[in-house]
Q: What sequence folds into this?
């Protein structure tokens, strides 16, 4: 009888969870319990984005970004920081970037072959009409001074449509990088140098609340006391949210691909839950952690909308690499991604921004553009080459998304034919699609961290 009672008590004790288990589950719930419901400044919710991204568009993006057109990115990693002297370049091996040699590049990207296929096809046509034009030609001779002026005017016109300080295609230090061989992950780059980068972005380039009367084009909104967005108009809140969302996405990538011990002195790349908690859990950063993660979803919606709006432009591109079969397949894969993107019902609405008094709206849009332009230049101050590579690519991608959404009416509504006034370079296309792919990867990684927390 005594033995039976002992067994019964022992069994009941096994059913009672330990205090440590309760604490672990509580930590997991706290980290994600508030990551649900609606997002501020847009009509969407976290759950809809999770379902759409993880179940529909993310697998297609992963396949697309493996293709040659999108895996090679041309970039200058040797520019000097334009804002401060910086000698804190990371010397760790994981900070280094493997540069592509000409031999491994697709034929269409090699030196002297970087031109759209339609330009090659048009050469024969040009030769045929040269003789005919000779008799009716007009003297178009220009002085060198005039030619230099035209170049300057063109650069000025292009800059008015751009939100990013893009690398000059003709710079000697421009080199192709294989993004698949240089994945974004933790490199050991830490300390004052990266802290100064983000301080400069947030403290010097994000907008601050102004105590004066609210501009007429700014809608009223009730925000929590002490929020970094308190007192800001819609446009300035959007600016902060996209920067914060990009920052969150980058942090998630570093946490998801961390260098971990693998026994016997070996290491491996994998998710580090403790690092994720230190950046996002309420125990470490308070309610700001949930806000950071929601801002990731916000910038995801903005870039998704840019892809949809740019669809008419993509319809007219050949995605030339020199491999006709590959080019056709890449184009079809991108069209499939765009078709899925169009089906998402809760699109970001850029038409709510820069409204009201035209003069004030134009001034605010230019201020918005200049602030982001500065952020793109700060990327040349990053002391780790691999971090600089991915920082530049993702900032340029976000800048391209802003260009698509806010360059005036040069694209127009997505239900009208392609407008020839709008243009994107190959690097802008590659940056835009890869940047959205990074955001998609981050949201997918959150699902993995949820499972890890439940298991821990």
A:
């Amino acid at each position: 009888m005594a033995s039976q009672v002992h067994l019964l008590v022992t069994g009941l004790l096994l059913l009672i969870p330990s205090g440590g288990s309760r604490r672990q589950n509580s930590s997991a719930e706290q980290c994600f319990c508030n990551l649900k419901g609606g997002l501020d400044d847009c009509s969407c919710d976290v759950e809809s984005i999770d379902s759409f991204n993880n179940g529909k568009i993310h697998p297609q993006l992963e396949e697309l970004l493996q293709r040659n057109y999108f895996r090679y990115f041309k970039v200058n990693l040797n520019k000097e920081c334009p804002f401060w002297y910086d000698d804190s370049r990371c010397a760790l091996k994981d900070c280094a970037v493997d540069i592509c040699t000409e031999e491994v590049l697709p034929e269409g990207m090699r030196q002297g072959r970087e031109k759209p296929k339609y330009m090659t096809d048009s050469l024969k046509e040009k030769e045929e009409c040269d003789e005919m034009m000779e008799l009716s030609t007009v003297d178009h001779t220009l002085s060198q001074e005039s030619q230099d002026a035209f170049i300057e005017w063109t650069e000025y016109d292009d800059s008015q449509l751009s939100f990013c300080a893009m690398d000059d295609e003709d710079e000697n230090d421009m080199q192709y990088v294989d993004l698949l061989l240089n994945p974004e992950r933790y490199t050991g780059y830490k300390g004052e140098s990266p802290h100064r980068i983000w301080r400069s972005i947030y403290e010097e380039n994000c907008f601050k609340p102004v105590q004066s009367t609210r501009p007429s084009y700014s809608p009223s909104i009730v925000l929590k006391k002490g929020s970094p967005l308190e007192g800001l108009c819609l446009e300035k809140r959007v600016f902060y949210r996209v920067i914060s969302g990009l920052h969150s996405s980058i942090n998630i990538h570093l946490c998801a691909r961390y260098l971990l011990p693998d026994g016997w002195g070996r290491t491996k790349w994998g998710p580090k839950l403790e690092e994720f908690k230190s950046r996002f859990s309420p125990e470490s950063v308070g309610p700001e952690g949930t806000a950071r993660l929601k801002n990731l979803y916000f910038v995801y919606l903005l870039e998704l909308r840019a892809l949809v709006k740019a669809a008419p432009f993509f319809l007219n591109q050949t995605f030339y690499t020199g491999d006709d079969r590959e080019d056709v397949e890449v184009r079809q894969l991108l069209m499939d991604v765009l078709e899925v993107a169009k089906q998402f019902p809760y699109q970001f609405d850029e038409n709510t921004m820069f409204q009201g008094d035209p003069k004030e709206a134009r001034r605010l849009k230019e201020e918005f553009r200049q602030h982001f332009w500065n952020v793109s230049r700060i990327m040349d101050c990053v002391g780790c080459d691999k971090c600089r590579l991915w920082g530049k690519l993702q900032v340029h991608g976000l800048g391209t998304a802003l260009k698509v959404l806010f360059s005036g009416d040069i694209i127009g509504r997505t239900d009208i034919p392609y407008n020839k006034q709008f243009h994107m370079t190959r690097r802008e296309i590659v940056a835009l699609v890869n940047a959205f792919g990074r955001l998609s990867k981050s949201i997918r990684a959150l699902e993995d961290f949820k499972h890890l927390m439940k298991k821990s």
